[in-house]
Write a structure and sequence with these properties.
By secondary structure, the chain is α+β, with helices and mostly antiparallel strands. It has helices spanning 2-13, 25-28, 36-40, 44-58, 102-124; strands at 17-21, 62-66, 90-92, 99-101. The protein has one domain (2-124). Pfam families: Cas12f1-like_TNB. Residues 44-110 form the Cas12f1-like TNB domain.
């Protein structure tokens, strides 16, 4: 249902969908003991596959971008630091002072990387767009 709604909004608004490449995340993240069961049931790959499948059928572009530092990078000034994430839910740039919900800031960074990818792709005529192939 989540994938269907995302694709429907992208199709209705004439936009694409940008996803983080989360392959290998299970090996990089160290959950607390009481969070291990939830961590083991994450289905990032399955959701991504559903989004790609439904997007392909609807003619919506899907771009996968590098996930490194998306939650630590300031979208305004470009400063990247671990302590920009002062809590699980909070972001505050130590350089320029931009603050906001960490997930929102990470989403902006994913969008910006996707836009750069499409711009580079259109100039070089080499795309990694999954909806095209």
């Amino acid at each position: 249902m989540i994938a269907k709604n995302l694709v429907a909004v992208a199709q209705r608004t004439g936009r694409g969908i940008a996803l983080e490449d989360l392959s290998g995340i299970r090996g990089r993240v160290r959950p607390r003991r009481n969070q291990r069961a939830v961590h083991a049931s994450w289905s990032f790959h399955q959701l991504g596959a559903f989004i790609e499948y439904k997007a392909r059928r609807a003619g919506v572009r899907v771009i996968t971008v590098d996930a490194r530092f998306t939650s630590q990078l300031c979208p305004d000034c470009g400063y990247t630091a671990r302590n920009n994430r002062f809590s699980r839910d909070g972001f505050g740039c130590r350089m320029c002072g931009l603050a906001g919900p960490a997930d929102h800031v990470a989403g902006i960074n994913v969008r910006n990387r996707a836009r750069l990818s499409v711009g580079t792709c259109q100039r070089a005529r080499t795309c990694r767009l999954k909806a095209d192939g």
